[in-house]
Design a protein that fits this description.
The protein has 242 residues and is α/β, with parallel strands linked by helices. Helix content is 38%, strand content 24%. The chain contains eight helices and 15 strands. The strands form four sheets. A five-stranded parallel β-sheet has the order 2-1-3-6-7, with helices on both faces. The longest helix has 16 residues. It is globular and about 50 Å long. The protein starts with a strand and ends in an 11-residue tail after the last strand.
Amino acid sequence: MATILLVEDNTLIREAVAGYLQLDGHKTIEFDGIEGVFETIQRGGIDLLILDIMLPDGNGLTLARLIRSSAIDADIPIIFLTAKDSESDRILGFEQGADDYICKPFSAKELVLRVQALLRRTQIRTAQTETPFRTWICNENTVFMDTDRHLLTLNGIQCNLTGAEWKILEHLARHEGQVISREQILSECLNYFYEGSERTVDTHIANLRAKLGGGWITTVRGYGYRFDGQRTQNDITSGTEA
């Protein structure tokens, strides 16, 4: 059972979504506006956030950006549930830190399945036999990854990633030097397809580049992306001091 925070000002939609999630075995905490949401997340115990964009007392995009820039639960999975359905709206949503974006009107069953998939990816991301500690260098910069603690530092400074960004970076890094197609990223990391979904991959990659700087992820035109960091044998404690 997961604890899901649901922020939606339309009472009928909020109650319907909460009902479907509860039938699937989840606990829901419901808000009809922005007020109190960030404080609830800061208290901990929230596994996933479903967030409307246009709210009576604020904007969901602004709230998502605040969550992603915070030090507490910055990587909480976020699903936007909104009537803003243009491609540019979806791209903006992912740029602000969304892990998924669902447009109204929507299928409640599909929403539940997407919640299940996102929770599964978040909870099982460290189910690997290899060490969770990895250190990479590129252009005299150093990235340290601890997948158990979901910690990433760049030159000793902590860098907050969304759940989707983590999944993509881990996948690329595990296949260092190999070209990974957008289709592979969609199926292995995001686990869904829709019209314009390849642009979603491009947006996540652009966000990763903005956070890590240049050189780490190379675009191989017509094929996909390649992680160009080189793994080191440095003492794993060197990345835990941030």
